[in-house]
C-alpha cells in the first residue's frame, strides 16, 4: 500500500528569515503541530520540529534557517511501512513528498495512521505499549521531573497518585510553565525576554528590572510540585483495546499518548504513544524483535546490519532472555575531533526479563555504539540494570538547574 491517499497540502510554513520567536508562537497556538515547513523562493528548505525548538536554547531573534533540518524525502508511491520506518528512525512526524524533484505536499504521522485505521484493529494495545512505566508522584518536585525526562530522553511522564494516573507532564508543559513563571518573576516588564518570542530589550536581549536573584528563582521553580505543572485528567485505555481504538482516543482528545490501565485495576500498566502505533506499521511477519535506530543520519561509519548483529550477539549470550524490541538512540554533542562529532549512543533492550540499557560516548557512531554495547552486555549479563523510576533518578541538581535556566532565560550566544 502506498501513501498517496495520505498526502496533503495542509501544513504550516514559514520563510527562512522568520524569527524563532514567531515559530514558538505558532507551536503554542496549535499543540497538535509537530513540525513547521521552511520554504524559500517557492522551494522546500527543510523543517523545524517542536521538540528540537523547545528543548534547545536559542535566541528568539535567530532565524528559522539556523535550526532547519533536512528530513528524508519521499514520493507519493512510497510504501506505508517504509514511510512509518523513516518517521520513527528520524524522530519526525512529518515528511515532505516530492514528484520529479518538485515539492508536492507532506504526509503526517496522524494522516498515515488515519489512512490505515481499519488495519490497526489487527493488533491490540498490549502488543505495542511500553510496560516499563516511569512515573512521578504529584508531590515530586520539578527538579526530579526534569531529571527523569532528561536522563531517559522521554518527552512525557505520567503523574500517579496512590496507584492512579492523575495527570501527564510533557517536555513542552515544562517549558511553557517555566516561561510563564519567568514572566511573572520579571514583574510584567515589557522589555522582558521569555524563552521564545517575548519582547527583547536592546541590551543584548536581556532585562534587569524585576528579575531578583536568578539562583533563588531557579531554586523555587525546582522545588515546585509536579501537580502544579501536570495536565489533568489523563486519557486512558485498556491493554486489550485495538490499536484502531487507541488512535480514535488520541484523535478525540488531541493527545499523542494514552496511559494503559487494565479494566480490573486502577493502577497504570504502561503507556502507548502515537510513535508506538507508527512502529507497529513497520513490523513484518518474520521479525522476532524490532531494532529501531533514532538519529540514523549520524551513522556515517556504522550500518544498520552492524547494529542488528551486535544486539543479536548480546541476546544470544543471555539464554533466559527473549528480546521483544531494541532501540538505539544517537545524540550529537557540540564537541568535535578532527571534524568528527562527539556522539552519545544509548541502547535499550525491552525483554521478557525487564528493560536493560547501556550508554556510551565516542567520536563517531561506531565508537559511541561499541562503548554502549559493551556496557549493555555487562549490565545484561550481571542483571543489575533493571529500570525503575526511583533507582535511576540520580542527584544531578546542578545540571538540572542549568537546563532550567536555559528555558527561563531567552538569550544564548549563537555559535
Word description of this protein:
The structure is a single chain. The protein is of the alpha/beta class and 415 residues long. It has three domains: 4-115, CBS-domain; 127-260, Roll (CBS-domain); 284-382, Double Stranded RNA Binding Domain, CATH 3.30.160.100. It contains twelve helices and 15 strands. The protein has helices spanning 20-29, 50-55, 80-90, 109-115, 142-152, 171-185, 214-223, 243-253, 274-281, 304-317, 365-382, 397-408; strands at residues 13-14, 35-40, 43-49, 74-75, 94-99, 102-108, 156-161, 164-170, 236-237, 257-260, 270-273, 290-294, 323-337, 340-351, 354-363. Helix 8 links the parallel strand 9 and strand 10. Helix 3 packs across helix 9 (274-281) and helix 7 (214-223) crosses helix 12. The N and C termini lie far apart (44 Å). The model is unreliable at 188-212, 384-397 and 408-415 (pLDDT under 50).
Amino acid at each position: 500500500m502506498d501513501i498517496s491517499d495520505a498526502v496533503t497540502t495542509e501544513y504550516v510554513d514559514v520563510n527562512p528569515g522568520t524569527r524563532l520567536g514567531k515559530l514558538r508562537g505558532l507551536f503554542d497556538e496549535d499543540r497538535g503541530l509537530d513540525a513547521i515547513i521552511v520554504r524559500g523562493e517557492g522551494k522546500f528548505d527543510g523543517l523545524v520540529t517542536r521538540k528540537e525548538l523547545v528543548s534547545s536554547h536559542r535566541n528568539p531573534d535567530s532565524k528559522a534557517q539556523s535550526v532547519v533540518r533536512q528530513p528524508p524525502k519521499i514520493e507519493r508511491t512510497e510504501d506505508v511501512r517504509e514511510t512509518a520506518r523513516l518517521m520513527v528512525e528520524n524522530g519526525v512526524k512529518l515528511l515532505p513528498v516530492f514528484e520529479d524533484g518538485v515539492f508536492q505536499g507532506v504526509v503526517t504521522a496522524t494522516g498515515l495512521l488515519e489512512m490505515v485505521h481499519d488495519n490497526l484493529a489487527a493488533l491490540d494495545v498490549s502488543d505495542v505499549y511500553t510496560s516499563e512505566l516511569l512515573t512521578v508522584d504529584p508531590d515530586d518536585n520539578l527538579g526530579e521531573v526534569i531529571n527523569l525526562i532528561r536522563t531517559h530522553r522521554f518527552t512525557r511522564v505520567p503523574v500517579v497518585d496512590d496507584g492512579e494516573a492523575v495527570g501527564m507532564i510533557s517536555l513542552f508543559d515544562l517549558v511553557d510553565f517555566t516561561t510563564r513563571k519567568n514572566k511573572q518573576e520579571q514583574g510584567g516588564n515589557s522589555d522582558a525576554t521569555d524563552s521564545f518570542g517575548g519582547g527583547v530589550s536592546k541590551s543584548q536581549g536581556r532585562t534587569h528590572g524585576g528579575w531578583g536573584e536568578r539562583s533563588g528563582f531557579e531554586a523555587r521553580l525546582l522545588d515546585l510540585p509536579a501537580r502544579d505543572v501536570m495536565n489533568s485528567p489523563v486519557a486512558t485505555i485498556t491493554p486489550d483495546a485495538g490499536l484502531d481504538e487507541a488512535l480514535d482516543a488520541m484523535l478525540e482528545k488531541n493527545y499523542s499518548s494514552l496511559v494503559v490501565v487494565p479494566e480490573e485495576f486502577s493502577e497504570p500498566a504502561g503507556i502507548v504513544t502515537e510513535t508506538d502505533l507508527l512502529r507497529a506499521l513497520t513490523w513484518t511477519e518474520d521479525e522476532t524483535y524490532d531494532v529501531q535506530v533514532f538519529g540514523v543520519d549520524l551513522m556515517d561509519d556504522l550500518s544498520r546490519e552492524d547494529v542488528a548483529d551486535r544486539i543479536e550477539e548480546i541476546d544470544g549470550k543471555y539464554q533466559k532472555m527473549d528480546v521483544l524490541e531494541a532501540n538505539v538512540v544517537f545524540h550529537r554533542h557540540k564537541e568535535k575531533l578532527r571534524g568528527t562529532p562527539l556522539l552519545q549512543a544509548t541502547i535499550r533492550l525491552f525483554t521478557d526479563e525487564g528493560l536493560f540499557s547501556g550508554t556510551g560516548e565516542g567520536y563517531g557512531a561506531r565508537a559511541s555504539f561499541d562503548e554502549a554495547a559493551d556496557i549493555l552486555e555487562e549490565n545484561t549479563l550481571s542483571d543489575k540494570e533493571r529500570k525503575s523510576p526511583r533507582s535511576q533518578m540520580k542527584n544531578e541538581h546542578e545540571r538540572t538547574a542549568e537546563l532550567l535556566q536555559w528555558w527561563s532565560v531567552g538569550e544564548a550566544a549563537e555559535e
